[in-house]
């Protein structure tokens, strides 16, 4: 197959591309705008492969998208391009509206027109796979409820509202125009090549530099953690085997409070990086509670039984095994880390995480 993947230089997108090139015979065209979180170095292992291509493009640019579709003639589209950081959506929501809503609309329209022009056999095999988030469902009450594919949408942040909007657009293009779509909603991802503004890489890298480890509020927010390579396998299963019009929730079966995650990272670093920055006795001594995020959801948790039953997917990594691999990867890939740490990134971190 020929797969067109948007946002392929991002954290999840690059994991999907590495998985496809390594484990299948499919061809991949990666289109990415290369905003601050897009990093082609995350694709160094496949960048010269004969089945991989990259084009820098903005999904809001319909004319460029039309040229790309006409030239590449994809069999499947995997749409991962998105602004994805909740904190950034609070301080600057406009980019989220533009990319996540307008960009998805432009991509849907170009894909619909392209699909309509295919012969019957290729029309029947074409798929538009939209990758979304569990945050569209909002907040879970209590400690036992789970998000299912039927959970009503109740987004809390500009980010999750923009992703909810894009999900609704995809479903509307399926119902109104017949575009063959698939939607997945995933829990919090973690793993190698994660941009250092997100919790797990931020804690790892700050600890190694002897900087404060910022934890929102009391750190009692609960998330379901999914190792990114498990997610990549799930996404490929959906785009190749999923039923048209269906939604699949993808979770890691690993519910942890944020403070538990931070403590687990500190314990791993005690073992894997015992030579601490000067003056640091224990990594956990660097933990610093900061003012909570506005509208912060307390708990997310996914019921991933549908994708397990229908597509025979389950995560291979436990939280413990995945976190160990992640910490070790950051210890082994300091060049990648240093290249990512641009001035913009440093300015963002200093603005965002102020001690309470």
Helix-strand blueprint:
Blueprint: E1 2-6, H1 11-23, E2 27-32, E3 52-56, H2 62-72, E4 76-79, H3 86-91, H4 94-116, H5 120-125, E5 127-133, H6 158-177, E6 181-186, E7 188-190, H7 199-208, E8 213-216, E9 222-227, H8 228-241, E10 247-250, E11 255-257, H9 258-272, E12 287-290, H10 305-311, H11 319-332, H12 334-340, H13 343-352
Parallel strand pairs: 1-2, 1-4, 2-3, 4-5, 5-6, 6-10, 7-9, 8-12
Antiparallel strand pairs: 9-11
Helix pairs in contact: 1-8, 2-4, 4-6, 7-9, 9-11
Strand content: 15-25%
Low-confidence stretches: none
Order of helices and strands: EHEEHEHHHEHEEHEEHEEHEHHHH
Span between termini: 52 Å
CATH class of the domain at 2-194 and 225-256 and 299-319: Alpha Beta
Task: Tell me the strand order in the biggest sheet.
Answer: 3-2-1-4-5-6-10
> What is the strand tally?
12
CATH topology of the domain at 2-194 and 225-256 and 299-319: Rossmann fold
Rg, Cα atoms, Å: 20 Å
The main pleated sheet reads as: 7 strands, parallel
Specify the helix fraction band: 40-55%
Derived structural class: alpha/beta
Overall outline: globular
The CATH H-level homologous superfamily of the domain at 2-194 and 225-256 and 299-319: NAD(P)-binding Rossmann-like Domain
The total count of helices amounts to 13
Mean pLDDT: 94
**What is the correct CATH architecture of the domain at 2-194 and 225-256 and 299-319?**
3-Layer(aba) Sandwich
